[in-house]
Fold this sequence. Notes:
Blueprint: H1 2-20, H2 25-48, H3 57-85, H4 87-91, H5 93-116
Amino acid sequence: MVGGIGFVVDVGILALLVHGLGLDPLLSRLVSFPCAMTVTWYLNRRVTFSHAVSSKPGQEWFRYALVSMAGNLVNFIVYAACIRLSQNMYAYPEIALAIAAIIALVFNYLGFSRFAFRQDTDN
């Protein structure tokens, strides 16, 4: 559910920037991704991993950001490849984003559950 909300935020901002403002679809991800990441961190902290929320939210957010950036690298490589390999996906970057999001999903979940939201051991 949280990933789906993050996807909606990401694709919504992407569509607004590309179709509404006429910006480049690759550069637009530099805006849409951080917005979606912040929304998903907050929701994952409150819902998905609430049992493992750290008493140090700054450190937790940093670990989450690291996992998100690594996952986004996977996501972005797939997204860029789709855009570059298909004229249809250049015109409709939302399709490329959906493909990339599906591929990065497993990587992100494992990183979040095992690294970002690990329980503090020094409490």
